[in-house]
Specification:
Keywords: Ligase. The protein is an alpha+beta fold. 44% of the residues lie in helices and 11% in strands. It has two domains: 71 residues, no CATH class; 52 residues, no CATH class. It has five helices and four strands; from the N terminus they run αααβββαβα. The termini are far apart.
Length: 124
């Protein structure tokens, strides 16, 4: 819609900054319109997928723009249980956290989903 209105002055619409700015505007508008203290924005999909790139970049920028004290990254991840080996595998979670860190997002909290209880030594 913005492109058709001429907001980009006939230029190419770019993911950064055009799409990321629009994502940030929508999150900020949700906070302002509802006068809430907390806005939860879920970024679905898999860390590293191309489809999630503009959303990841937008939330990375938001921490810098609104202050780290006003942003909390919660990473919800699956810890698979291998029945044959009778063990939980933390490697997929380690890799996704590493990918987040590589793009400048340091999760404040990990929420681990698993069909078996996650032992304390794995959480540490």
């Amino acid at each position: 819609q913005r492109e058709r209105r001429g907001d980009y002055r006939g230029g190419t619409v770019q993911v950064i900054p055009h799409v990321t700015n629009m994502i940030k505007e929508k999150v900020m508008r949700a906070a302002q319109m509802t006068d809430t203290d907390v806005v939860i924005s879920e970024i679905g999909g898999t860390v590293g997928d191309m489809e999630s790139t503009p959303f990841m970049e937008a939330i990375r920028q938001m921490r810098r723009e609104v202050g780290s004290e006003n942003v909390m990254y919660v990473h919800v991840t699956f810890v698979p249980y291998l029945r044959a080996a009778k063990e939980l595998k933390s490697k997929p979670t380690q890799q996704s956290v590493s990918m987040l860190r590589s793009i400048g997002i340091q999760p404040n909290m990990l929420v681990l989903r698993s069909e078996m209880p996650v032992p304390q030594e794995m959480k540490d």
